[in-house]
Design goal:
The chain has 6 helices and no strands. It is mostly helical and about 160 residues long. It is globular, with a radius of gyration of 17 Å.
Length: about 160
Amino acid sequence: MHESLGLSAIQVGILLSVNRWVRLLTNTWAHHAAERQAASRLLPAALTLGTATTALYAVASSFTVLLVARLLWGLAWSFIRHSGVGAVMQDVPFTAAGQAMGFYNGVSRIDSATGLFGGALLIDGVGFHAGVLILAGISLLGVPLAMRAFNGPRKH
């Protein structure tokens, strides 16, 4: 499939690995930002950036543009992860922190597996560009859901 996108195998490898590298470099920054800023602001912003970069994958054909999009997606993921962890830890009693983090991580992993499997089926069914645009649209639904999650009283 990478040939149909105009990418060499080494370029695909770089695109796949740069996401991890940028997350290693931005995790500390995201952690400090999550300590200073409310998750109610950071999470919707990070989800918006993640959605925008996902949509960019569908319309870009240049390796350089895809590389920048992948770097920005890794940055967004650092903020998504730290905002989510911070929100969980802020909203649960100390005695339930381990259980809450286990639940959060479980849901996150199920979501990742579902996205990978569903995305593969979608891209096989409708093609790469249309499939990625559909995935970006689905991701966009997370922005208002994240904003809504922080409104009103929350129970432990």
